[in-house]
Amino acid sequence: xxxxxxxxxxMRKWALDEKRRELGDLQRVLDALQGEKAALEQxxxxxxxxxxENPELAGFAYGHFANAVIAEREILSKRIADQEVQIDAFLxxxxxxxxxxxTAEIAERNRVDAERAEEDRKEQAELDEIGARQAxxxxxxx
Length: 142
What we know:
Blueprint: H1 2-53, H2 55-138
């Protein structure tokens, strides 16, 4: 039976590690999206600087650029929000996997404690028997 708990614990640890790796992957995607958004904002600042230096040439080009940036911001904001929702949902899965691992570890600890208590009880009964025999001999009854 001990082997079964150890196998269960190993399986639960593996499942938790897998969930954590997947969570890391999801977080890296979120970080990349946030990086894209930050790069877009930097591009806007650079384009605004160019537009302010050449207002007569920038008027026509900047309008199209601004429209494209607005559309791209909306897309990135939606993707970031979707990714955050996915991460939040996945955090619940990680928490469940952690709870299952802890449950298996506690069950194993309880089994070991019960086994140890039974061994201690048997040892104490044996010592009590030896003590009773010794007391009987000392009293001269044997």
